[in-house]
Amino acid sequence: MKIIIGAGRTQIDGWVSTQENEINLIDEETWKKKYELNSITNILAEHVWEHLSYEDGMLAAKNCYKYLKSGGMIRVAVPDGNFRNDWYQNMVKIGGPGPIDHPAYTHKVLYTYNELIKCFENAGFKVDLLEYCDEDGKFHYKYWNEQDGKIGRSFRYDTRNSHEKIQMVSIIIDAKKEITI
Asked: In angstroms, how far apart are the furthest CA atoms of the chain?
């Protein structure tokens, strides 16, 4: 079982696309209605966590941990608070640039890689950092397999990026639930 949280119009073969009204990350009752504990192999959440408060993000990570199988993984992408680009930072800032129908209007957190890692490690995950900017704004990239969840707003797949100029980045992590016997 592979699910996409907050999928919007995203459809990937072999994955079940869900919306907030089906799976609310912080309301475990919505999870219980659809899934058994330890039943999901992969979860994909692209630009979802920034719409939760930091505390709710930690609760959401804990809920994901409960429903992932031993050895399961969640791939998460969020806007990068360390990316040195004024236009980008204005677009992704908490509350967004306005108006009320702008997707960033409901942003509650602008993560740095350390904060996102901490959120998932506190839930019990082992975190692998795939894409991010460090404190100096330098972009880092580690090859990742899109079969584990394709992130459109990534160095590889966002058409606004090239090797000469990066214009759109995300912090991307794989958070893995350790294998238990």
From this structure: 50
Residue 181 lies in a domain: no
pLDDT value of residue 181? 67
Domain total of the chain: 1
Query: What pLDDT band is residue 79 in, cutting at 50, 70 and 90?
Result: very high
Range of the domain at 77: 2-176
> Does residue 86 form part of some domain?
yes
169: domain CATH number? 3.40.50.150
C-alpha distance from residue 46 to each of 29, 79, 178, 181 (Å): 22, 9, 22, 30
Could you give the C-alpha distances from 145 to 95, 130, 149, 180, in angstroms and in order? 32, 10, 8, 24
Listed in sequence order, the residues at least 6 apart from 21 whose beta carbon sits closer than 8 Å to its beta carbon are none
62 membership: H or E segment, kind and range: helix 54-67
Regarding predicted confidence, which is higher, 102 or 65? 65
